[in-house]
Amino acid sequence: MEWRISDELIDYQQAVRTMEERVAAIRADEADELVWLLQHPALYTAGTSAKEADLLDSGGLPVYRTGRGGQYTYHGPGQRVAYVMLDLQRRKLDIRCYVAMLEDWLIATLNRFSLRGERREGRVGIWIDRGHGRDDKIGAIGVRVRRWVTYHGISLNVEPDLSHYDGIVPCGIQEHGVTSLVDLGLPIDMAEVDVQLAQAWADIFGGETI
User: Fold this and answer.
1) Is the pLDDT of residue 170 over 80?
2) Mean pLDDT in the chain?
3) Is 205 in contact with 101 (CB distance < 8 Å)?
4) Which of 98, 111, 155, 185 is most buried, by CB atoms within 10 Å?
5) Can you give the pLDDT at residue 174?
6) Which of 140, 170, 144, 171 is nearest to 156 (CA)?
7) Residue 133, pLDDT score
């Protein structure tokens, strides 16, 4: 499979077109599977379950309707996005198992920074227990599958502008917050995050990485 890292900010619609083209090529057995690591300019996306009331104030940021599962989320500089294009038939995985493996990937990556990322019943994504009943979300998951080939994927908050989350109800959850590696006192650069994502990927999914 191929690993690709884009250093420049990638336009969201361009990224979707690139993913759709790659998905078609993988299905036709004309291209390798792909994990694409990138960052977007500041924007909001609305998944297939998004509710209009959860867009509180876009603040002039663009809002894109997207075919991935989930509700409203934010993407922007300082957030590592990983778009994952895998052939589930080739890997003998069902969709539920695949999503669980994405969760495991984020948890394993955070563990490499001595952070305990956790699942929460009824809440999509990966969470950090801040104590006193407070959970903050650090990783988001939103996937789409076309003819058993996946696209979209995960995001991990490294050092984004967390104030942009004030414009939405992230993933429809009001009673909890969001955090990042830097917010948790870990000033880790994106290159190191990429190394740890790749090593954790090998642990969870196997195969060659960057």
Assistant:
1) no
2) 93
3) yes
4) 155
5) 67
6) 140
7) 83
Assigned token pair, 124: 């999509």
Contact 41, 11 (CB under 8 A): yes
Tell me how far apart the 2 most distant CA atoms of the chain are, in Å. Answer: 52
**Which domains are present in the chain?**
2-204 (3.30.930.10)
> Is 155 within 8 Å of 79 (Cβ atoms)?
yes
Rounded Cα distance, 192 and 175, in Å:
31
Backbone torsions φ then ψ of 132, nearest 5 degrees: 55, 35
- Would you give the end-to-end CA distance of the chain in angstroms? 10
Determine the residue type at 132: H
* 52 phi and psi angles, rounded to 5 deg: -55, -35
Supply the residues annotated as catalytic: 171
pLDDT at 2 over 80: yes
Which stretches within the chain are classed as H helix? 12-27, 88-91, 95-111, 190-204
> Which H or E run contains 120?
strand 118-120
CA distance 113 to 80: 15
Separation between Cα atoms, residue 1 and residue 207, nearest integer Å: 8
Average pLDDT (123-128) is: 92
pTM here is 0.94
| Res 175 pLDDT > 80 | no
Least confident stretch, 31-40, 107-116, 133-142, 180-189: 133-142
